[in-house]
Design goal:
The protein is an alpha/beta fold and 398 residues long. The chain has two domains: 199 residues, Nucleotidyltransferase, domain 5, CATH 3.30.420.40; 187 residues, ATPase, nucleotide binding domain (Nucleotidyltransferase, domain 5, 2-Layer Sandwich), CATH 3.30.420. It has 15 helices and twelve strands. Strands 1, 2, 3, 4, 5, 6 and 12 form a seven-stranded mixed sheet that branches. It has a five-stranded mixed sheet with strand order 9-8-7-10-11, with helices on both faces. Helix 2 packs parallel to helix 3 and helix 8 crosses helix 11. The model has no long low-confidence stretch (mean pLDDT 93).
């Protein structure tokens, strides 16, 4: 690299549709691994009408292609506006930023079917060319496609960043991100990136959110701090039935999305739990999320790795009932939050995509094959030149 540091903006919008996370990260080459510093972070909530349109796109099979096309570019505008507002609020010029890494908004994720011999497919909208044009900043987007083209799952993509954060602790550590979906990362003591195991475990907040939305006729979008679940009783028979879901039992590598754990499943749960009290349904779905996480740890991680602690992040880390359920089911392992390490839990995913953009500009392959199952290492992301592209080239960033 021609310069010793880059200022990179990471953009992330997750399955929960909370909004656009914007992280400003300074990244430096320092020894074997890059070092990084979070210089600013903010979440820009989606306008309720836009959120509803995205939600329909993720939940319906009868959306017109023209609507997908329009929203793809419209979200590019919304992501751009978030970056421009962020720069004004944090008092820096856009010309000070070298790269943007934008994950976009997943509207469909269809991992490869090893049994059926089907190729995978994935679609994240929020056109990167619009972001590059509006901000003038070279943008890296569409991070999942290259891995899927190489036969991988295309997800999860944050484990490399998790490794950089925690591999120096000197003991085995797990990372649990509870976003719309839940995914885990296991980092063995003195392990290298190739030793990392990571995969989606199943639902995170998405099923809880869906059930709460429908039970409250959209008056509530989520179960704040798990208060509704705390007032209910878990229906054991329904929980046992849910835990027989094929994805929970499937061996990694594996990844999932709303296609399996979304609106349709929430409707089915509400039908099967029609005789239950609303709080009991929320408690049962929350328990399903907790048990699905723990079942995956017990079946696929703990027989191979000795973990001293699990660091929990994502919106689910603020669900006290869910957090407590997981801790009770794993009494031998200490649960912690990113904040226990002076890290902003909400910013982790956006920071990860800032780092992935940086590594793409460095020409470094970052899909961990032990995680995604891809046939070979791939440079992740498509580079879209911005007005600063020549400067980035001259400084040796690309």
């Amino acid at each position: 690299m021609g310069n010793d540091s880059m200022n990179v903006i990471g953009l992330m919008s997750g399955t929960s549709l909370d909004g656009i996370d914007v992280a400003w990260v300074e990244i430096r080459e320092k020894g074997e691994w890059p070092s990084f510093k979070l210089k600013g972070f903010e979440t820009f909530p989606f306008h309720p009408k836009l959120k509803e349109r995205i939600f329909r796109l993720c939940s319906s099979e009868e959306i017109a292609v023209s609507e997908i096309c329009r929203l793809h570019f419209e979200l590019g505008e919304v992501f751009s506006e978030a970056v421009i507002k962020f720069a004004k609020r944090h008092h820096f010029r856009l010309s000070e930023i070298d790269l943007i890494g934008s994950h976009g908004q997943t509207i469909s994720h269809l991992p490869p079917s090893k049994e059926g011999g089907k190729h995978g497919a994935t679609l994240q909208i929020g056109e990167g060319a619009v972001i590059a044009e509006r901000t003038g900043i070279t943008t890296v987007s569409d991070f999942r496609s290259a891995d899927i083209a190489a036969g991988g799952e295309g997800a999860p993509l944050a484990p490399y960043f998790h490794y950089l954060l925690f591999h120096r602790l000197g003991y085995g550590v797990g990372v649990l991100n509870i976003g719309g979906m839940s995914n885990l990362t296991a980092i063995p003591k003195r392990g290298e990136p190739k030793d990392v195991v990571a995969f989606d475990t199943g639902p995170g907040n998405v099923l809880i959110d869906e059930v709460v939305r429908q039970l409250t006729k959209k008056r509530k979008q989520y179960d704040e701090e798990g208060n509704m679940a705390a007032r209910g009783m878990v229906e054991v028979a329904l929980l046992k039935k849910l835990l027989k879901h094929s994805f929970i039992l499937k061996s990694p590598p594996k990844s999932t999305g709303r296609e399996e754990f979304g609106n349709r499943m929430a409707i089915q749960i509400l039908k099967e739990g029609a005789d239950l009290k609303p709080y009991d349904i929320v408690a049962t779905v929350t328990a399903f999320t907790a048990h699905s996480v723990v079942e995956n740890y017990k079946k696929f991680i703990l027989p191979k790795f000795r973990l001293k602690e699990i660091v929990v992040g994502g919106g689910g880390a603020r669900n006290k009932t869910l957090y407590t359920m997981i801790q009770r089911l794993l009494p031998e392992i200490q649960l912690k939050r990113f904040e226990d390490y002076q890290l902003n839990s909400d910013a982790i995913e956006a920071m990860a995509f800032a780092l992935l953009a940086y590594e793409a500009a460095s020409g470094k392959a970052l899909n961990l094959r032990s995680v995604t199952g891809a046939s070979h290492p791939m440079i992740l992301g498509k580079v879209i030149p911005g007005h600063n592209f020549k400067r980035v080239l001259l400084n040796g960033f690309l």
